[in-house]
Amino acid sequence: MAIRVGALPFTIVSHVLAIAAAVLVLVWCIHFRGGLAWEAINKSLIFNLHPVLMLIGFIIIGGEAIISYKALPFSKEVNKQIHLILHAIALILGIVGIYTAFKYHNESNIANLYSLHSWVGIGVICLYGIQWIFGFAVFFYPGGSAGVKAESLPWHVLFGLFVYILALATAILGFLEKLTFLESSHLAKYGPEAFLVNFTALVTILFGTFVVLTAVSPARVEDDFSYSSI
């Protein structure tokens, strides 16, 4: 007899890992890196907004948007609206997070868009925006016919998960890039900060893994036009 694991256990683990990742990135940027600021003489404080906004705003809220159909006990329509709103918040915070990186580079006379992390990051935010606009138009307003929705849903889910996995990969590249810069500036390779950054990246990977597992696992109640119908 096949054993089917429902979405609930994966959802619970996802929430726990989301909290852990948020706490870790805040400890890193506030305790080890000196804090957060929109305007500052120490331009590194401006950059610190970037990992916080991208991880908490883009990765975590974006992940919560993906699993909202299976994590929330509301009706299909309510869950769809929450899904749409959470993705919009993630997209906005992601755009602001990318802007802070440009702001830091421009005010510090550092070149922009020279690394693989930045190239992939720009691509991810563009794909994320396209995915959101498509979902809004087809599943929310003006909305497609039942046939269009049914045909679009598998591709919407598949492309959404692809973009999210790509976002996770971009985040890991960002952690690696920043830690490499810090270590080249004499940060201890086996010190507490290096350990924290690597551990934050691992927790981020685990969070993304459980988000994907939640999205593809069977739901308790099957809904039309949602992740739970997959």
Automatic annotation (TrEMBL):
<keyword id="KW-0813">Transport</keyword>
<dbReference type="InterPro" id="IPR043205">
    <property type="entry name" value="CYB561/CYBRD1-like"/>
</dbReference>
<keyword id="KW-1133">Transmembrane helix</keyword>
<feature type="transmembrane region" description="Helical">
    <location>
        <begin position="153"/>
        <end position="175"/>
    </location>
</feature>
<dbReference type="GO" id="GO:0016491">
    <property type="term" value="F:oxidoreductase activity"/>
</dbReference>
<keyword id="KW-0349">Heme</keyword>
<feature type="transmembrane region" description="Helical">
    <location>
        <begin position="53"/>
        <end position="72"/>
    </location>
</feature>
<keyword id="KW-0812">Transmembrane</keyword>
<keyword id="KW-0479">Metal-binding</keyword>
<feature type="transmembrane region" description="Helical">
    <location>
        <begin position="12"/>
        <end position="33"/>
    </location>
</feature>
<feature type="transmembrane region" description="Helical">
    <location>
        <begin position="122"/>
        <end position="141"/>
    </location>
</feature>
<dbReference type="InterPro" id="IPR006593">
    <property type="entry name" value="Cyt_b561/ferric_Rdtase_TM"/>
</dbReference>
<keyword id="KW-0408">Iron</keyword>
<dbReference type="GO" id="GO:0016020">
    <property type="term" value="C:membrane"/>
</dbReference>
<feature type="transmembrane region" description="Helical">
    <location>
        <begin position="195"/>
        <end position="216"/>
    </location>
</feature>
<keyword id="KW-0249">Electron transport</keyword>
<dbReference type="GO" id="GO:0046872">
    <property type="term" value="F:metal ion binding"/>
</dbReference>
<dbReference type="Pfam" id="PF03188">
    <property type="entry name" value="Cytochrom_B561"/>
</dbReference>
<feature type="transmembrane region" description="Helical">
    <location>
        <begin position="84"/>
        <end position="102"/>
    </location>
</feature>
<keyword id="KW-0472">Membrane</keyword>
<protein>
    <recommendedName>
        <fullName>Cytochrome b561 domain-containing protein</fullName>
    </recommendedName>
</protein>
<feature type="domain" description="Cytochrome b561">
    <location>
        <begin position="13"/>
        <end position="216"/>
    </location>
</feature>
